Amino acid sequence: MMEYSIKILGGGKEVGRAAIEVSTSSESIILDYGVNFDANDNPNLPLQEVPSKVKGFIVSHSHLDHVGALPLYQISGNFPIFGTRLTRLITELMLKDFLKLSGAKVPFEWTEVRKVMDNFRSVKYHEEFEVGTFKTELGDAGHIPGSSMIKIKTEKGNIVYTGDTNVINTHLVKPAELEFLRDANVLIIESTYGRFNHPERKVVEEEFFESVKEVVEGGGTVLVPAFSLSRSQEILSVLSSRNFDYPVYYDGMVKEITELMIQNPEFINDYESLKKAYNYFKYVNGWNDRNKATRNEGVIVSSAGMLKGGPAVYYFKKIADNPKNAVFLVSYQAENTPGRRLLETGKFDEYSPMLKARFQIFDFSSHAGKNQLKDMIKSAKNLEKVILVHGSPDSSSVLAEELKRELGVEVIVAENGQEIKVF
């Protein structure tokens, strides 16, 4: 019988840059192939394997840390890539934007991005398909619209990779399908929040909405720096679902991604709220609109989510000195970003004055918290091995110790380059 192994090409012992190879002696498939960035904004690419062995790629979702390096393999050949239709459509936008911003720092060009899209095949949830001789299936991961968990079915057992995942009901997505994990023998699962639990989402939404309303009714402008993919649409849906009747502006790549989501309603949980936001809130189209958005009370939802570039930086500088205004962060703030610096020091950078506008952070995370990850893992009834990826060393190690104690199964905190025999 075949022997199966897993090699971590990226995403082990760090947040982001997911890339995992599942192999037999003769062939392999790669699950995600992402890119993240160092403190100087240089792209950090995953490890590469011998192309002749690779039969194709399966993509869990369209965030850059899961798809950003896909063009690398298209330099030397044509490799099939599989994912949901919405993942395919958004991946094209993300790769084009990535190349526009970082093209001089990566070893591929427009030609390879085009080949990625030409070779990207859309599959439906629970539709079995083959990559080489690997039989595979996708389930809903509950992370962002179109996101997937990936199941690889072998004669010795099932390997399931969760990608990024969440188990709560949000405006954009339904919870991850726990039933999909039931027959997993080997589970590769993210551990981004392996140490922490999130507050209840309904409470967060209500606090956010009431805080926004308070600032705007006091004559101020609220800046919400948010990722263009998913977080912006979630925030806009929160406001539209509560019939927020003050001006709301959105800026950046938000519009294009929102349009793709609206064109694919089967992937959206609260479709009416998203469509209402698109129809009634105003897209910022140029500098005249940007100036108008900062002159009157209202809300501005703008990329980038960590205030590291994007139109949000312009808005921040316009509204920061007025105590009537507010800056509400709704995303994780990585180290060495202006958003993290604001949290730690109250200043945008070392040369800036102290922020005078109201400042709050709200936990709208699209990743499962510690107890939710444990519940997901416990839903697998024939579990033999858990492999933790996509987490900082402290998050992964805390979760690993609790899992060993509570479940008594083998738990591996994966490291980049590590090869793990599974069957």
Q: What's the helix count? A: 13
Q: What class, by secondary structure content?
A: alpha/beta
Supply the number of structural domains: 2
Span between termini: 10 Å
Biggest β-sheet strands, sense, barrel: 7 strands, mixed
Q: Give the C-alpha Rg.
A: 21 Å
CATH superfamily of the largest domain: Ribonuclease Z/Hydroxyacylglutathione hydrolase-like
| β-strand number | 22
GO molecular function: hydrolase activity; RNA endonuclease activity
Organism: Sulfurisphaera ohwakuensis
Pfam families: Beta-Casp, Lactamase_B_6, RMMBL
InterPro entries: Beta_Casp, MBL, Metallo-B-lactamas, RibonucZ/Hydroxyglut_hydro, RMMBL
Architecture overview:
Pfam families: Beta-Casp, Lactamase_B_6, RMMBL. Residues 232-342 form the Beta-Casp domain. This is MBL fold metallo-hydrolase. The protein has 423 residues and is α/β, with parallel strands linked by helices. It has two domains: 5-196 and 366-421, Ribonuclease Z/Hydroxyacylglutathione hydrolase-like (Metallo-beta-lactamase, Chain A, 4-Layer Sandwich); 201-361, Rossmann fold (3-Layer(aba) Sandwich), CATH 3.40.50. Helices cover 31% and strands 22% of the residues. It has 13 helices and 22 strands. It has helices at 64-67, 71-74, 85-102, 110-118, 201-217, 231-241, 254-262, 271-280, 287-295, 311-319, 338-345, 370-378, 393-407; strands at 5-10, 19-23, 28-33, 36-37, 43-44, 54-58, 81-83, 120-122, 129-131, 134-140, 148-154, 157-161, 186-190, 221-225, 248-251, 282-283, 298-302, 326-329, 358-361, 385-389, 410-413, 419-421. It has a seven-stranded mixed sheet. Strand 10 and strand 11 form a beta hairpin. Helix 3 (85-102) packs antiparallel against helix 4 (110-118) and helix 3 runs antiparallel to helix 7. The radius of gyration is 21 Å and the shape is globular. It starts with a strand and ends with a strand. The relative contact order is 0.15.
